[in-house]
Structures are given as C-alpha cells and as structure tokens.
Amino acid sequence: MAFKFTLMCDTLPWVGCDVLEEPQVVLQAAKQAGYDGVDLPGDPTRMDGKQWRQMVEEVGLEVPEILAA
After folding, report:
1. Domain residues for 52?
2. CB 34, CB 3: distance < 8 Å
3. Residue 50, burial from CB neighbour count under 10 angstroms (0-12, 13-18, 19+)
4. Which residues of 59-69 are buried (b: 16+ CB within 10 A; e: fewer)?
5. Could you give the CA distance from residue 64 to residue 29 in angstroms, rounded to a whole number?
6. Would residue 44 count as lying in a domain?
7. Distance of CA 63 to the CA centre of its chain
8. Is residue 25 part of a domain?
C-alpha cells in the first residue's frame, strides 16, 4: 500500500487525544479523517503488539512506523 497520509499519534496528547488511553476512539477518528495509517508510540509497557495489530486492521488502517524516543 502506498501511503498518502499517516497520522503521528505521538503528538495527539497535546490536543487531548491519547491513543494509548482511548485507542478505538483515536483509530476510528483517524480513519474517518481520511488517514491511511497511524504511526504509533512505542511503549511496550503499555502496548500488546498482537492486540494493536488487530485493532488497527479492524479499522482498516496500517502502521508504517512505531515511534520511539
């Protein structure tokens, strides 16, 4: 898939949307806004890779990048 638009979820807490707190809400909003994928924050203490893959695929998005600091 060629990505036109991907949303960097790491920046969303600054505007009151935290993908780690409300993943379904943020993923659905990203899809409805026309994004093809979401760049997720890389926090293995708060994320289960298999669950995240399933949630993202169910919404119809892809994850081109896991962001880590």
Report:
1. 6-67
2. no
3. exposed
4. bebebeeeeee
5. 18
6. yes
7. 7
8. yes
Task: Look at residue 54 and give its three-state secondary structure.
Answer: helix
Residue 27 belongs to a domain: yes
Residue 12: helix, strand or coil by DSSP? helix
Three-state SS at 38: strand
- The two structure tokens encoding residue 16: 């009151």
Is 46 within the bounds of a domain?
yes
Query: Domains in the chain: how many in total?
Result: 1
Q: Which pLDDT tens digits describe the chain residue by residue (69 residues)?
A: 566 788 888 888 888 889 989 999 999 999 999 999 999 988 888 888 899 999 999 999 999 988 876
Q: Is 3:64 a contact under the CB 8 Å cutoff?
A: yes
